[in-house]
Amino acid sequence: MLKTYTPSEAQQTILRRRRGGDNPYPQSLLNGLTERFGPGSTPESAVSAILDSIRTGGDPAVKKWSSELDGASLDSFSVPQARFEEAYRSIPEDLRQALKTSADRIRAFHERQPIPSWTTTELGGTVGQRFTPVQRVGIYVPGGTAPLPSSLLMSVIPAQVAGVPDILVCTPPEPDDSILAAAYLCGIKTVFRIGGSQAVGAMAYGTKTVPAVDKIVGAGGLFVTLAKQQVYGIVGLDGLAGPTETMVIADASANPAWVAADLLAQAEHDPLASAILLTPDAGLAASVAAEVKQQLESLSRRETILLALENRSGVVITGDMDTAVKLANDYGAEHLCLAVEDPDSLAENLHNAGGIFIGEFSFEVLGDYAAGPSHIMPTSGTARFASPLNVLDFVKLTSIVALDPDTCRRLAPTAARIADAEGLSAHSAAARIRLADPAGENNVD
Amino acid sequence: MLKTYTPSEAQQTILRRRRGGDNPYPQSLLNGLTERFGPGSTPESAVSAILDSIRTGGDPAVKKWSSELDGASLDSFSVPQARFEEAYRSIPEDLRQALKTSADRIRAFHERQPIPSWTTTELGGTVGQRFTPVQRVGIYVPGGTAPLPSSLLMSVIPAQVAGVPDILVCTPPEPDDSILAAAYLCGIKTVFRIGGSQAVGAMAYGTKTVPAVDKIVGAGGLFVTLAKQQVYGIVGLDGLAGPTETMVIADASANPAWVAADLLAQAEHDPLASAILLTPDAGLAASVAAEVKQQLESLSRRETILLALENRSGVVITGDMDTAVKLANDYGAEHLCLAVEDPDSLAENLHNAGGIFIGEFSFEVLGDYAAGPSHIMPTSGTARFASPLNVLDFVKLTSIVALDPDTCRRLAPTAARIADAEGLSAHSAAARIRLADPAGENNVD
User: Is A334 an annotated catalytic residue?
Assistant: First the structure.
């Protein structure tokens, strides 16, 4: 069930990154959209219609879509205050403890992230960069078959560490107690029971109930992702999430049972999830494949795993480690796990990945819950340019320019000369007036 | 020509930030699109058609659109190597010097920006965040009526400081010598004569001539911006640029001639540019208005300035300074200039702005060319969540997780417990196998 590829075969199949256009939607999805949104509807046009209706229609439009798409008939989107503590008390004690351990470690990790504000006086006067928190952030926490309290912790806590004063959460109705318990644990008081693209629309445009936010973060399904893309620029985003991916680089020193367990954990997420092993060792590949087959028998999400292993997963026999490094950098995996003899030196050469899990005791599932970094990491090869969710996602910088008169006069001719070349005479004049007008000196303390 | 507003009038007009939907395109633009792209075409659908055609058609499609939209008939998109030095030699000596002064200062500023990679061993094993450069960046430098060599310097240099190994530039045919001279000055060797959405498409999807990039930065016109939005997620972006804005907060201590010059410099960019003065001092407002009228007479871009002053510019009499601060934070200006008695303490309270120019010697035009920070700053209120272009735009971080066996065993039960609550049994199994399988110890050095 775990197919084996040569590097060149893999590059044409499981390792291939497409840049748009090659993933037609299933006809069943398109048919469903046609029924609701009219002939020729696409997911993009449906999302656009939902967003437009919320932008102009506010709460009643949100209510309508929640009813039509989620089957929810809600009098109020807000989760009542009393529900948070109630949920927290209602979950098992050991789960409460586990969430607390996880939250503490995520917070401890992100509290160590430096916020690199700086100024210098070495260039004349004071110049620098000042970071300040985003004022209001909306966090999408997916619901669906697997309620993910961990996703709430992994997005809310970095925002809190950044000092965001106003954090709200949207999650599909009816949220699992574990999600509300995680909210309670973090001190979050505003959770709206709104899912899908209607949640994104409500947060981006604002309604009477849901205040417009400055930035939306968090992963969701297709409609959430398409909605985020369409409101990009109106609000800030953390990125657009695709199916999750784990790539393991292993050599003969790896424990095949552990590697197999990590690949299976990845595969249970989603039929489109990728679980990929790169190894120069054909013996290890065979042992891992045997372990996958055996361990699979006792797992509850067997059907999903089989689909994921079939679709976008497999073993690549890489010949040597350099080939594995090259394939990994080209692929830019969300999670990159190193089960090799000397993982630290291998890690030095890997630069495109959301997270690098160094050594077999740093397994990916720990990263999902408790290692410290956010588990919201760049997918679909976006690790080429994007980062895991982190404190810097919740701040923005302002350039600071506080020049002294001498530096101003020294630089003004440069500005005037380039402005002239650019045909911007008012720019040039604004520079020259500082040089020409001695009265200006009276304005300086 | 510089209208005066009360704060509440201004909030309904010149200070109003719309979240989508309220800016219908001019009929003349739509008519032009219908002719070329068919009935019912919008700028969005036209850009989508151009991008699709380049994704599937490569260089010949780029050539076709360059010919149709820019009237360019090019045998090759690449600027020949010899042209760079030739252009550099051909521009006037004082302009060459000015570009050099500007480049040196931009570089000196960005070289001081910290790249906050870090690790800690305080949490068990090693965890942290490692920043590495984006590997290939495409920079769009607008052409049009005002060739902007400064835009090349302001985007290329932060990328170079970040260590991006492969930087390419697209700019409309035929680039001004000043742009090629700026490229030469920075050591850029790859400039493609491609403009508009076809440049974005070529860089996002790659063609035989133009390699696919990881990130696209730089501002352009409507078609560039729409194309960037549509390729968001396939490549990284710096943001979506709207019309430029300068807000000046001034009190009685300000020099009215200087304030007027700064507003006029802003207004000459674009008929949709905003030049806004906030002041509690009606006397200053009157003096500035008189200066604007007088200085305008000698400026070459008078028609553009008049339109800009009419459309989205004006003076707001704020009653007190606190009101000015509140309006400025709500507006989130690209450029925020403080011409007041004590600008430093005012700056402390301002948190939404691309750049804060503190004191009248730190005028905005210096920021355009020579102060040091990039002049590519967030517009349209996106300073609520976005930053000026800076070195961090050209790096991405990878989370590092290198736990020791003890920490792994301490955290594995937490991971397993939350995985169970989330219904992810293979996740739970991957954690429990680390606890159960003593053979794992043999795999650790």
Answer: yes
How far is residue A89's CA from residue B106's CA, in Å, rounded to a whole number? 56
What are the phi and psi torsion angles at B118 (to 5°)?
A: -160, 155
Structural domains of chain B ordered from first start? 4-16+243-385 (3.40.50.1980), 81-116+123-239 (3.40.50.1980), 404-436 (no CATH)
Which residue type is seen at B433?
Answer: I
Give the containing element (helix H, strand E) for A83: helix A81-90
Residues of B in contact with A145 (CB under 8 A): 423
What residues in B contact A257, CB-CB < 8 Å? Answer: 433, 437, 439
Q: Does A363 touch chain B (CB under 8 A)?
A: yes
Judge whether A390 is closer than 8 Å to chain B, CB to CB.
yes
The DSSP element (H or E) to which B428 belongs, if any, is helix B425-436
Residues A311-327 pLDDT 10s: 999 999 999 999 999 99
- DSSP calls for B351-392: -SEEEEEESTTS-HHHHHHTSSS-S----TTGGGT---S-GG
pLDDT score of B442 more than 50: no
User: Parallel, antiparallel, or unpaired for β A126-133 and A395-402?
Assistant: antiparallel
Q: What is the pLDDT of residue B147?
A: 73
Smallest Cβ distance to B402: which of A113, A359, A400?
A359
Give the closest of B115, B354, B369 to A419, CB-based: B369
Neighbours of A421 (CB within 10 A): 24
- Tell me, what DSSP letter sits at residue A389? S
Kindly state the average pLDDT of the residues A407-430: 96
Mean pLDDT of chain A: 94
Q: Return d(Cα B195, Cα A336) in angstroms, integer.
A: 38
